[in-house]
Amino acid sequence: MVDIVLGAFYGDEGKGKVIDYISKDAKYSVRFSGGNNAGHSIEVDGKKFAFHLIPSGILNKDTKAILGNGVVIDPKVLLEEIDNLKKNGYDCSNLYISDKAHVIFPYHIELDKLEEELRGERKIGTTKKGIGPVYEDKFQRSGIRMEDLISDKFKDYLKENIFIKNRILNAFSHKGVDYEKILKDYLEYSEKLKPYVCDTTKMLHKAIDNNEYIVCEGAQATLLDIDFGTYPYVTSSNPTIGGVSTGTGIGSRYIDEVYGVIKAYSSRVGEGPYVTELNNEIGDKIRELGHEYGTTTGRPRRCGWLDLVALNYAIKVNGITSIALNHLDTVGKLDNIKLCTKYLVDGKEEEYFSSNLVFLRKAKPIYEEFPGNFDIRGLKDYDKLPKNAKDYVERIEDLTKTRVSIIGTGPGREDVIVRNKKVLSLKK
Ligand code: IMP
User: Fold this and answer.
1) What is the tens place of the pLDDT at every residue in 83-136?
2) Residue 329 Cβ contacting ligand 1 at under 6 Å
3) pLDDT (average), residues 180-186
4) Domain span at residue 378?
5) Ligand 1 atom with minimal separation from the 272 CA
6) Is 300 found in the same domain as 233?
7) I need a surface site. Which of 66, 248, 251, 409 has the fewest CB within 10 A?
8) Is the residue at 283 inside a domain?
9) pLDDT of 427 over the 90 cut
10) Does residue 253 share a domain with residue 175?
11) Does 425 reside within a domain?
12) Which of 161, 195, 229 finishes a domain?
């Protein structure tokens, strides 16, 4: 039994909360793509943990937390997360890292910064964590994987890579990176990470045969996907459903529920088109009410209304079976809520999304309007929701033909209404 949690828009939809909720009974909690460009925080027993890499399942001793082969790993960041967990009483013996996951080096970070500077108008607004350059190396077949980092060939691989990267960096008047320093640091990281490295695909295949419950945690989101997102304003991996298979080794036949996480409004960080963006005081108000500032970079997020044209696209791309709607309480604090149901493109109404930039730049949102002013804090039962809140939720269901099965009613871990029979039965 494999369930997947994916972001439907531009990331930061609150996947962590949904993952946390459905993972309580998971035997495996798996990250399949991206790196420390992602970030989510979880509060347990009054302690707040900010994770960029480690799957949230790590906090449950009985859950095996896996970093799959599709993930890219900055060992320094990973070791900081491990140390912090150890300081707080979690021994991390339930952490497993794929031998095929690629490793981020300082030259990837330098190249990420340099490439962004050189892009000018086509600046992506990356997190500058080296994500693009490490995936470039992966697909160019010159990357260094975890299994290489812990092998005795590591020195040679690093030397070859730095030889080439320093020539590229020098061409951009960058003095290059220091082989000896990187070698020393990474040999230390290698020693510390070695005990966690293994063939995680084999582990997951055994888990499938043993009927164990696996939850795959998406990072980033559908519209940031390298293929289906708003290219080039995207990340360098597939945070969509295909990334689950290529980033873990789990075939689609084993996948059961696919949760698409959204907010009752929307947000985006970085550059790129955003049809329902609000560049006005309502956008500012949503940012303040929803605390929309980046977990990884602290950047203020761009905010706007919920876009069902884009959501229906995410449903089709990912085969979303269930919607998790966060921040319903936040839009309840507004007088009016708008829901984008169609686009107007070249004078014609359009129901289908396209990630084509020319199309998106021309698209104007067509809205339906709903009254807000509802307070849903503390509610646990869907039937007790005020009419205004229900009307909004049910219109989303009508127009997406998909059940809204989890509803976020506040910032806390337990602030959710669950309407999914499967989740309820898992919790018993
Ligand atoms: P990169 O992944 O650092 O290369 O950044 C590419 C784009 O994806 C930028 O617009 C980032 O802001 C965005 N991005 C990357 N990771 C996340 C995330 O976890 N949440 C939201 N946006 C992200």
Assistant:
1) 999 999 999 999 999 999 999 999 999 999 999 999 988 899 999 999 999 999
2) no
3) 98
4) 2-91+200-418
5) 10
6) yes
7) 251
8) yes
9) no
10) no
11) no
12) 195
Query: How far apart are the CA of 75 and the centre of ligand 1, in A?
Result: 19
Average pLDDT taken over every residue of the chain: 94
Residue 22 exposure: Cα atoms within 13 Å on the Cβ side: 33
In a domain, 39, yes or no: yes
Instruction: Please name the residue ranges forming H helices in 173-255.
Output: 179-193, 200-209, 241-248
Report percent pLDDT > 70 for the chain: 98
DSSP state of 93: T
| 269 touches ligand 1 (CB under 6 Å) | yes
Residue nearest atom 19 in ligand 1 by C-alpha distance: 38
Cα(424) to ligand 1 centroid in Å equals 33
Using the 3D structure, point to which of 157, 177, 195 is the last residue of a domain.
Answer: 195
123 and 244 fall within a common domain: no
How many domains would you assign to the chain? 2
Please check whether residues 154 and 85 belong to one and the same domain. no
Question: What confidence score (pLDDT) does residue 41 get?
Answer: 77
Q: And the tokens for 414?
A: 């337990």
Contact 196, 58 (CB under 8 A): no
Q: Which residues are catalytic?
A: 12, 40
β-strands 336-345, 364-371 pairing: antiparallel
Which residue's CA lies nearest to atom 22 of ligand 1? Answer: 11
337: which 2 tokens? 């809520």
Report yes or no: 95 and 51 within 8 Å, Cβ to Cβ. Answer: no
Q: What are the pLDDT digits (tens) for 44-82?
A: 777 888 889 999 889 888 999 999 999 999 999 999 999
Q: Is the pLDDT reported for residue 266 higher than 90?
A: yes
Residue 134 sits in the same domain as residue 262 = no
